[in-house]
Amino acid sequence: MNRRAAVGKGPEVTYRLDPDRPLVDEVRRVALEGLDDAIDRLRETGAHADLEDDVHEARKRGKEVRGLIRLVRPALGDAYAAVNAEVRDGARELSSLRDAHALVDTVEDLIAALDGNGTDDLERLAGHLRTGASAATDGVDGDDPRIAVARSRMETARAMVATWPGAIDVEAVAGGVAKTATRGRKAWKASRKDAGDEQVHEWRKRVKYLWYQARLLEAADPDGIGPLVAQLDELSDLLGDEHDLTVLVEHAERAAGTDEMAGVDGDRIVDLARARQATLRTAALHLGEEVYGDGVDALVGKLVDQWPVQSSAA
Description:
Blueprint: H1 3-6, H2 23-44, H3 51-71, H4 73-76, H5 78-93, H6 95-113, H7 120-137, H8 145-161, H9 170-193, H10 197-217, H11 222-254, H12 266-292, H13 296-304
Helix pairs in contact: 2-3, 2-8, 3-5, 3-10, 5-8, 6-7, 6-11, 9-10, 9-13, 10-11, 11-12
């Protein structure tokens, strides 16, 4: 049974703008759907056994809303910064509830990628991390201050969205895409020259936002935009996995000498993670050529040209 239905939550979030409806109405609808879903999940946390899932999904909704408001940032003025800050800071409150579990996932994914070959240290580390992850979330419910503050910030953002300006047009969308694509292309080119942790992480963020925006606009031209959505999805996954390994390396180095690393060769963990990172970065840089190689104007044209010109009035 769908867990959302089982706990009485609303309909699934539709992260896509309808080209047959006024943009301002659609932007507000998608933002409200995302925030409502996040708020509902944080309100009902503790009423069921899916804390990790709810925290993960609430954070995901926050990232999607931030991708949406970047799309129409030129039309929002000061409203952009205010909403972005509330959603961003709300999601940050949840980080400590998710990070421990995410680290377990990273180690398990690395074991799978290596097909279990030479992974004894990783498996021992995974066991230690599972214990720590359980301890981080055992007994947490909706009254936890982190969840309460995150929910409050999302509610504040929702109230702001309801008063957004009534003029959002295709030109604003084109400007939002151009800014995201420009930053992403610049970060990709910089990563080709120096694929260090910080630089690749910066590129990852830009790819993620362009992926969100392509998903939002896909309905205007599914055949034209759909392949780009798929490429950005794959690229986002590659860079996400790459970044998770950076977090693993930092954790292994920071935890050296602690009980968490008992019986674990930290240098071996770092070597395995860095080797896998190199493979992922090579694949990502190659795919980046397919996404960004034709330039920003081509990306803007692909994503926006088929969007109907319409009245921006609410």
